[in-house]
Design goal:
CATH topology of the largest domain: Rossmann fold
Number of strands: 16
Structural class: alpha/beta
Bound molecules: flavin-adenine dinucleotide, FE2/S2 (inorganic) cluster
CATH superfamily of the largest domain: Nucleotide-binding domain of ferredoxin-NADP reductase (FNR) module
Strand content: 25-35%
Largest sheet: 7 strands, antiparallel
Strand order of the largest sheet: 4-3-7-1-2-6-5
CATH architecture of the largest domain: 3-Layer(aba) Sandwich
Distance between the termini: 38 Å
CATH class of the largest domain: Alpha Beta
């Protein structure tokens, strides 16, 4: 699979909340070959602090020219990224990883939590193209309405009305996405595509296991190189040993992973 390391120009910055932003970056090379579920490694600043690139899912592409990343400020790298300006250039490596496998035979359900929603918009678009007769069900969770509103609107623009859950009850169900899933008629065969905080993915995996549904999870482990050259991203796998989230994933069949269930 081709990968590029290049200087990409920031053509647009959208600020959803004080700490959630979306960047549009110009890169025909990356935008034209990226698959939903793949990610890029971004050097967040021009100095050596922080030294390592940071991984971000590709949240959508447009016209084989631009791609977007949606991110939340959690530390040094994302804080520097949040202070970038339109017109500036960022060094980006990608697209990396395997991406989701779209299955048109089953009902499809996209389940995203927090910044894990990022790759699902790109996935929804690809799914609507590939399986036009079976639009996916979309279930999105976050802390509050403010974090979700624009994302829900983006799915609505695709004709997809998302079920929502928020921690504070300000939008949709007051509680967890899995509680929403329990109320939906997903049929006998449903493939779930999941990205979000680890406890949420564990809960969705258990929900799917109970119903014998397929479940693909995108693992957002910490990463140092993004290319299989360190052990920064390893995840324990059922067959024994470890997989690299950066090269064997970030998307795994949930059944292949070891889940810590308390
Ligand atoms: C494949 C992949 C895709 C990702 N996609 C997105 C995305 O689309 N949007 C987004 O906002 N984030 C995404 N992340 C997470 C993002 O990479 C981290 O938030 C970022 O690297 C933090 O960098 P920092 O320098 O700001 O924080 P750091 O200073 O490195 O860390 C600050 C705090 O955040 C925690 N942290 C760091 N990385 C992660 C992580 N991966 N998961 C949970 N906690 C973490 C640290 O433990 C620490 O407590 C993705 C991660 C992976 C592996
Ligand atoms: S991040 Fe280095 S091996 Fe995966």
């Amino acid at each position: 699979m081709s990968q590029f390391q290049e200087k990409t120009q920031i053509t647009r910055i959208e600020r959803f909340t004080e700490d959630i932003l979306r960047l549009t970056l110009e890169s025909p090379e990356i935008a034209s070959i990226a698959k939903p579920g793949q990610f890029v490694m971004i050097r967040t600043g021009n100095s050596s602090d922080p030294l390592l690139r940071r991984p971000f899912s590709i949240s959508q592409t447009s016209n084989n020219l631009h791609f977007q990343v949606l991110f939340k400020v959690v530390g040094r790298g994302t804080s520097i990224l949040a202070h970038c300006r339109e017109g500036e250039f960022l060094s980006v490596l990608g697209p990396l990883g395997n991406g989701f496998t779209i299955d048109c035979r089953n009902r499809n359900c996209l389940v995203g939590g927090g910044m894990g929603i990022a790759p699902l918009l790109f996935l929804a678009k690809a799914m609507l193209r590939k399986c036009p007769d079976t639009p996916p069900i979309v279930v999105l969770g976050s802390r509050n309405r403010e974090e979700l509103t624009t994302l829900v609107y983006d799915f609505a623009e695709l004709g997809l009305s998302a079920y929502t859950a928020t921690d504070d009850g300000s939008l949709g169900h007051h509680g967890l996405v899995t509680e929403v899933l329990e109320t939906l008629d997903l049929g006998a065969d449903c493939t779930n595509y999941v990205c979000g905080p680890h406890p949420m993915m564990t809960a969705v995996h258990l929900f799917c296991k109970k119903r014998n549904y397929s479940c693909q999870v995108s693992m957002e482990t910490s990463m140092a190189c993004g290319m299989g050259a360190c052990l920064g991203c390893i995840v324990p796998v059922e067959k024994g040993g470890y997989g690299h989230a950066c090269t064997d994933g970030p998307v795994f069949d949930a059944k292949e992973l070891v889940w810590e269930v308390k």
